[in-house]
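input
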Amino acid sequence: MSNSDTSRRFFLQCGVAGTVAGYQLPTAAADSIPPALAPAIGKLEPFFTPADEFRDVSRGKPVPHTLPEEKRREVGLTRETWQLEIISDPENPATLGKQFLKKDDTALDFATLLKLGEKHAVRFARVMTCLNIGCPLGMGLWEGVPLRTVLWMTQPKENLRRVFFHGFHNDDPKQLFRASLPAGRVLEDPDNVPPVILCYKLNGEWLSPERGAPVRVVVPEHYGFKSVKWLTHLTLSNLASANDTYSNGNNDIDSPLKTFAATLSVPGKTTANTPIPVTGYAQVGISGLAKVQVWVTPTGKGWAADDPYFTTAPWTDAHIVPPPAKWGGGVTDMLLKDAMGFDAKGNPKSWPMLFGKAHWAALLPGLPAGEYTLRCRTIDTKGAAQPMPRPFKKSGRCDIESVKISVE
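output
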């Protein structure tokens, strides 16, 4: 079994694809899909992942969300007791007009954050993915206050180059998990990219402890390690470089989400000369998604050593499944009407959505008896075929998946 096969099996075990959801296509969209694919599409998981079905890869001994409620209250991990300190970096100070500290009772509390949200809150759809796993942990609708709104409350004047943030990890310096962003990214959003937020809701409900409650960071275009859970501290710094915890594992901490495809439903055995329905998902990274393609070849058939990514193979286009009639995960049309990337009726302004997921389906032709290998890949909006333009594992996994099919 290849690494890609392992990633697919892991994804299926995450709970993300574990529920037969009865995926419902709008009537007009259904007309563009071959009828033979309808049963397979109907078994796809919902577009939005129920909050309690996200895969959890939290750190900590013990993991903070496992602490008893009394302890979580004591350390500020409930909405009633949460406080956020915002300070200038003592070693590389930014010039601020104001700091927010627990010791002088000025730290930001949850009620104040919600008050800011009455004017500034945003919500957007975004897939959460771990840099080193190679499959999404879940697809959510995240809501919170832009980080820049809080940053401006410190009245920054000069020498602000980077924003560091970390959460609660048992008051143990050895367990500290932190991430950072350039100040420019916090203050200004690239085209079609939502702001970095201090997040307190997922799919319209308060964050659960497992998802980082009461407040976490969500960085739309980055892998999950940037979206620090159980947020307690912001540090505004004149330091020019990052010191993210993830850099200690030789990870590329500045690599945004990649575009890639993988399978969900592929029959392990099938009958000769019978069309084969297959389905999968695609993560839509920073370069967007133009196509998903599939290719079937007899198992064991060699390939040119100088073409490791099968660029000259006879790939064929799969169907990118249109937006669903019902989104799942507890997300209502009313929530989507106010969300970034959706119109006043709750319909996505573009499809597939940047930093989201999309489902795909393909009807493979009937094959003679034998053993075959199915591969899938994406083509991004710049024309780059997976795993390009960034094939390196430490910048996010995007291997071309291979799945075995036995035809009898």
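quick obs: Residues 336 and 346 are 5 Å apart (CA to CA).
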